[in-house]
Amino acid sequence: MGVPVITTDYKPEPWLHAMHGMEREPEKGRRCQACFLHNLRATARKAKEMDIPWFTTSLTVSPHKVAADVFTAGQTASRETGVQFLAEDFKKRDGFKRSLELSNQMHLYRQKYCGCLFSLRVGDPV
Ligand code: SF4
To answer: If you measure from the C-alpha of residue 84 to the centroid of ligand 1, how many angstroms do you get, rounded to a whole number?
Structure first.
């Protein structure tokens, strides 16, 4: 059984606004912390809107993401919305290796940078 995927319209302006002044921050810096919070807030709000009691994120599967920083953002979004945050470090128990195996099996594209245009410019790892 598959998991339904919910997407939103691509609207980069609010994210760019939230990152203002942190454009040149390195990976794991203040910009990434603000990015985690921005995106996890949106996830928590959507969960609340849909009456879903828990939310989490696959961000922690990356060895380049500090799980404690992701958890801080998730817990803030949880306090703001009342939706429970599952703080799970998915890179544990070879989670990153497994993600590579699965994405290879499914022929998924894996980009060579984290995802934002700033990480593309400075070549931050995924
Ligand atoms: S997309 Fe990645 S590199 Fe860019 S701000 Fe967010 S976490 Fe940091």
So the answer is: 23
pLDDT tens digit string along 68-94? Answer: 999 999 999 999 999 999 999 999 999
Helix H, strand E, coil C: the string for 37-91 is HHHHHHHHHHHHHCCCCEECCHHHHCCCCCHHHHHHHHHHHHHHHCCEECCCCCC
Mutate to test the pocket of ligand 1, among 28, 31, 69 (most ligand atoms within 8 A of CB): 31
Query: What is the per-residue pLDDT across 3-36, written as a single tens digit (0 to 9) for each?
Result: 889 988 888 999 999 999 999 998 899 999 999 9
Instruction: Report how far ligand 1's centroid is from the alpha carbon of 124 (Å).
Output: 8
